Known about the structure:
Keywords: Bacterial flagellum, Cell projection, Cilium, Flagellum, Signal
Strand order of the largest sheet: 3-4-5-10-7-6
Structural class: alpha+beta
Number of strands: 21
Low-confidence stretches: 1-28
GO molecular function, one term: structural molecule activity
Function: Assembles around the rod to form the L-ring and probably protects the motor/basal body from shearing forces during rotation.
Pfam families: FlgI (PF02119)
Organism: Undibacterium jejuense
Amino acid sequence: MKLFFRSHVISLVLFCQLLFGLSFAPECRAERIKDLAGVQGVRQNQLLGYGLVVGLDGSGDQTTQTPFTVQSIISMLQQLGVVIPTGTSLQLKNVAAVMVTTSLPPFAQPGQTLDITVSSMGNAKSLRGGTLLMTPLKGADGQIYAMAQGNVLVSGVGASANGSKAQVNHLDVGRISGGATVERAVPNAIAQGPTIQLELNASDFSTASRVVDAINRRFGADTAAAIDGRAIQVKAPANPDQRVTFLGMLESIDVTPAQNVAKVILNGRTGSIVMNQAVTLEACAVAHGNLSVTVNTDNSVSQPNALAGGQTTPVANSTITIAKDAGQLQLLKAGASLADVVKALNSIGATPQDLLAILQAMKASGALRAELEII
Length: 375
């Protein structure tokens, strides 16, 4: 009975250890190729147009200060057969000149509708309640790819229940859902040639190599080959239907990307700091005004106990000292962490400018082993 009880206890302990190990095991972060790369030629195209919004409740352009609005009205009326006598002064309050923008998605076909954004380019007070007249939308090549028209919806206008408080946001920009109709398709070369080309969202030789290996394991050797750190050439079926199926299967392949380069992003206006991974510091000393930051590394030896049967292990203990005027703050930790330095600097009231200057000095001295990007 005791032996049976002991065996069950040992099994329970081993099971708990297994769960503990799995819970703290490094997470395998696999991503689909669809999230890591795109197919060359499959992209959006920006469209732009100039038009008029009419039907405004006296909130349109002041024609004395926006002569292009009057010229547009005269030109439009002439195209509609309305002749305006020479020297006539038009006092328009319900019309606004606008720019219309949208993006033409890949593989868009004639008849498909697009959402558009309508933005005032004059001194109109509001586009609320207006109607956009038929406006051609052109691409970078000057060709018309869509026609836009519809009622402009301006959001962000509201009032409280008793009417004593109103909230009015930006009223010179509105949206029209399905306000543009595609008139011309953009030629796409994805169905031409024996190969397609994948382009990684971020250049990385290790990730490109892993993507190539994953594709070759799935579809056979020599199916994919890396051209450089971003482009990957893939052999694809010639039949369009088979090629679409092939691309759908290819995009669903899971790949574990390589670890990104260490980067620290600092917003100099707000003082926000973002690190994409744990960033450590080398030994350094920085003096900035009444602030001083010192990072010292002390290499010690971890001695196992007498019954452990192990070996001595070197341990790097880092002392981070941050001083302001007469006071100072010390942090003792194995491995100097930039996160600890930033946290300590914030605790003693360092400004965004102080953080910017200190991080730049650490980067220039080589103590900060990461890319520093300032936005």
